Every structure is written in structure tokens, then in C-alpha cells.
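Researcher: Checking consistency across runs. Here is SVOP-like again:
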Amino acid sequence: TFTTMSAGIRKTLVSSIQLQDINHRADEIPQEVKEEKTYTIEQAVEEIGFGRFHVLLFLIMGSANIVEAIEIMLLAVVSPEIRCEWRLEDWQVALVSTMVFFGFMTCGVLSGYVADRYGRWKVVFGAFIWAAYFSLLTSFSPSYGWFIFLRTMVGCGVAGTSQGFVLKTEFIPAKYRGYLLPLSQIFWMLGAVLMVFLAMTVIPSLGWRWMIRISIIPSIILMFLFQFIPESARYNVSAGNVSGALQTLQRIARMNGSSLPEGKLVEPLVTQRGSFYILVSSTFRRTSMLLWYSWFVASFSYYGSVLSSSELLEKNLLCITNAESEHKINPEVTPCYCIPFGNSDYHTMLISSLGEISLLPLNIIMLNTLGRKYSMAILMICSGIFFLLLSICSTLFGFTILLFLLRSIVAMNFNAVYIYTAEVYPTSVRSIGLGFCTSFSRIGGMIAPFIAQVLMSKSVITALVPFAVTSFLCSVGALLLPIETKGRALLQNET
């Protein structure tokens, strides 16, 4: 009996040990699977942090703003020259700017769609080539009609370069975006100053055609430098190219002297990329509508300030209510003004261009303390006030100070609107979202010349009031935006 009981106990113990071993091995496999670490693209970007790659990115992609600024400021400095050469009336000069912005508008959405579907890098690189090619052709324009057509094509190309802002935003960690993205305004200012300097030195000796030819040099340089910038890792992941995204992240980590998070890069494939319906879905409808108006006003006020200053200086309208009678101009006999800029006019434009970065530290502080929404609201109120102050009769020095401050404020607002737009939309529609916004902004750019360059000759105050009123209304719209993006992670999908 004792032997039988001992055998039974041994059998029970062995069975128990075997059962425990089997259970342990059975638990082992799921446990290994459970412990496999993964990370998202957002976590990778934050883990890599800021380093040498981002400095290179900032310098090269920031320089894309130089190209856009040159093309925009060219409209202001070349207006008196083509007015004289082709004997143009006010509406014909304004039509040049309008058609450039028409090119921006039509190609803005298209470039955004292509960037979301096929990649940001391809769009930006192609846009550099397109803009430089047609800008060069502009310098050979035999007539006013050809000039308008070719500048419209330039506008179409520059619309694509704005996707460089998306590419840059998608590589920068969240806590650095509020500092680095506003600093891009430095490059815009450099482009504006370069254009005015070229006009001041080249036009009197070689003419406006050689000024345009020289102005495409930055675009050519950027075509070579842009080879050092990779495709957006966020885009690659959204398109299912996880290996490409991983290679890019590993390269950035090596440049920055950091490492990726442990585990495997995992992100769901985004099936709907570049879809307009996401922009007007219940999630983003209100945001999109308010942003479209904000972009309209940002462009309307910015180009209004640039073109108004050009018109006020060219026609000496600072303290004149009716330019035609004061300057003894008979539209039937002399249908155009032919008054080239003097050195003092160029100096005023240079100083006002420098104003675009004068309040940059304040802009950074506002974006990182008050947030994007409240910054936009405050800046729009201030710009409306300064537009009204611009109508007050003053000396050239007083006008220069007011213009300096106005250009600072409208440039700060453009910064805030750009950053908010790039942060609020998910990767799947970030480019087309920016594309639609820039297209609405170009509508503002299309209208601005007819007010700043045509209506201004009739009445300075009448021309400046629309800029002020739209700015005040925009400040209300900024407060109604449902999302604050300060410190917020960039979304991959709409949910």
C-alpha cells in the first residue's frame, strides 16, 4: 500500500511539474509577442530631437522663402518700369499682379494634391525649376501680353515651392516648431531686400530685364542644395513606404548624434491621401472655413501693404487726395504715370522690408505663450489700426515708420497662419490643406492690386479702409477657431 501510494504521489508530482512546464512554455510565446516594442513616427521625431540635420533643413528650406519673396517684390519694383515702357494704365499694371496670383491660386491646390499623393520633395524641386525657367523667359517678353502670361506661369511655379513649408514642418519636433518656423521670416526678408537692392543698382544701368535674369540665381543654387533634403518620413509612412521612412530617420539620427526608439516603426497605412472631403468633414469643416478666410486676409493685407507703399511713393500720394488733378495728369492725353523710383523711394522700401523681421522675437514669444489663435487675433487688430494710420498725412520719415511697423505686423500674422495650418491638418491632407489655403490667399492677392494700385489714385483713405475692415473681421474669426495647436503633436490621420 505504501509503495502504491508513493508511486501515485510521484506520478502526481511529475504530472504537476510537466503541466507547469507546458504552461510556462505556452505563456512564453505570447509574452515575447506582448513585449515586442513599437514606436510611431511622432515618437521617432521627438526621440531624435534637434540637431545638425535640422540646422541644414532650416537653412536650405528657409532659403525657398527667398525665391518667393523675390518674385513678389519684383511686382512692386518693376511696375514703374513696365508702365513707362508699354504706356500702361493703372488697371493694366494691377492686372499683372492679379494674374501672378491667379497662377498661385490655380496651382496651389494642384501642388497640394500632388504632394499628398506622390510626395512633397518632388513638388518642391519641380517648382524651383518651373519658376526659374519662366522667370527667365519673362525677361525676354516682347509685349505686355507676353509679360502677363509668363509671370502667371511663374506664379504657378512659386505655388509649388510653398510645399517646402510642409516638408520642413514634418521634420521638426513639436517644442521647436514655435521657434524655428517663425525664423523662416528672415529668409523672406532677405529675398525682399535682395530684390530692392537689385532694382536700385541694376535697373538704372542695365534695365529691368537684366534685373529679372540676375534674380533667378537663388533658384538655381537651391536646385543643387535641395538634393541634401530627403523626402518627408511622415509622408513615406502614410504612403506605406515604412522602409524608406526608417532609412530617413536613421540618417537624421546619425547626423544628430542620437538614436531611434527601441522596437519597430509601426504606423497604419493611410488609404485616403489628398482628399478634399476630409477638409470639409465634420472634424475640420469649421477650421477649414475660418482658415480660408484668414489666409485670404493675410495675403490681402500683406500684398496690400507692399503694393500700397509702392503706389504711394511712385505717385507721391502721401498728402494728396486726388493725384490726377494735383499732378496735372490728363488721362485722355497721358494715360499713365511715368515716374521711375528715386533713391529715397528705394531706401523707404528697403527699410520697410527690414521691418518684416524687426518684431520677430515678439512674434516667437507670442506664438509660444499666447498660442497660435490669440496671436493671430491680436496681430489682425493691430494691422487694421496701422492701415488706418497710414492714411494720415505725414512726412516721408513718418510714413516710413508707419510702413515699417505695418509690414512687421502683417508678416508676423502670415507666420502665425502658416504655422497653424501646417500643425492643425493631419499628414494625409496636410499638403492639400495648405494648398487650398494658399489658393484662397491668392484671391486676396488678386484683389489687392486693384485697390492698392487703382483705387489709391482716387482716394487714399477709401483704398485703405477695406484692408482695415477685413483685418478686424479676421481677428474675430481667429478666436472662433476650434483647435489650439501650440505644443500639439502632428496627426497622421484625421482621428
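Researcher: Does this match what you'd expect to see?
Model: One thing to look at in this run: The chain is about 75% helix and 0% strand.
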